[in-house]
Amino acid sequence: MTQRIIKFTKMHGAGNDYIYVNTLIYNIPDPAAVSVRWSDRHKGIGSDGLVLIGAASSPEADYSMRIFNADGSEAMMCGNASRCIGKYLYEKGMTDKSVIRLETLSGIKTLKLYINDGKVERVTVDMLCPAFDVPAQYAPGCSDGNDGTLLADGRLFGGTFVSMGNPHFVTFVNDIATLDIARYGSILERHAAFPSRCNIEFAQPMADGTIRTRVWERGSGITMACGTGACATAVAAALTGRSGRSSRIAMDGGTLDITWQEADNHVMMAGPAEFVFEGEINLDN
Ligand SMILES: N[C@@H](CCC[C@H](N)C(=O)O)C(=O)O
């Protein structure tokens, strides 16, 4: 019988906050609906979504991750959650490995934990290769390859489509501090160019060498950071000559260090992972 009282852990990576449940102990029968209820910042726990940690189906992996956005949609990958899972598994004694293989819907990702005095201080994730498989309907108003220009509420946004296991449209702007990202992000997420909707990154290279990036996430709206979005931004910046193969992506909730390796084409993401609090909640809430 499914237990009704579920113990959960709230964690964040650069401010991108999720509710984590160990499904080796607790069964969540309808995670999409639970994510909508629990993510609510007024009537629920409050988060950008729900993350389920479970057994891996592949013998190559140690554990698995499933990620649901705040609107209940399931995503293929989450960069910030994968770092948090590394910390969760190690500090809760579920592994003593400092290299963990995590199964996701977009492949097995390798996490490397940097441990000091029993605490995981930083996690690096091998995010595998970026893909530029342009959505079928990306053609309207677009130029060549994965670059295009999209119209949203009277403003044109030139950008690059990058898949990091999930879809991203990275648009470079020159008014990042004042841009109304809720206005434009909500329209671009559901633009006809993106049949499966899209995560949107608004980015601007800054004088200090960082790339200031603000995010509108598919299924969750404005978030403080997006790991896959940071990777997509770094790749788009490198492709368009705005940066080299390594970038510091400065998001609202923290900075992620991204390197797009020349040797194997893999994108490496490094950043923090933090516990916020533990709690328990009735599955029916
Ligand atoms: N916050 C995430 C990505 C979460 C999923 C995304 N909203 C989608 O629908 O693809 C990250 O850190 O990568």
Coarse shape: globular
* Termini Cα gap: 18 Å
The major sheet is characterized as:
18 strands, mixed
Question: Percent of residues in helical segments?
Answer: 10-25%
CATH superfamily of the largest domain, please?
Diaminopimelate Epimerase, Chain A, domain 1
Q: Please name the CATH architecture of the largest domain.
A: Roll
Average pLDDT level: 94
Q: Name the hetero compounds present.
A: ligand LBFN2T5F
Low-confidence stretches: 136-144
Number of domains: 2
Give the oligomeric state of the chains in this entry, treating copies of one chain as homo and distinct chains as hetero. Answer: single chain
CATH class of the largest domain: Alpha Beta
Total beta strands: 18
Pfam families: DAP_epimerase (PF01678)
Binding site for substrate: 16, 69, 79-80, 166, 199, 217-218, 227-228
Main location: cytoplasm
Protein name: Diaminopimelate epimerase
Explain what this protein looks like in three dimensions.
The chain has 285 residues and is α+β, with helices and mostly antiparallel strands. The protein has two domains: 136 residues, Diaminopimelate Epimerase, Chain A, domain 1; 130 residues, Diaminopimelate Epimerase, Chain A, domain 1, CATH 3.10.310.10. It is built from four helices and 18 strands. The protein has an 18-stranded mixed beta sheet that branches. It is globular and about 55 Å long. About 3% of the residues have low confidence. Bound molecules: ligand LBFN2T5F. The ligand N[C@@H](CCC[C@H](N)C(=O)O)C(=O)O binds next to strand 4, helix 2 and helix 4.
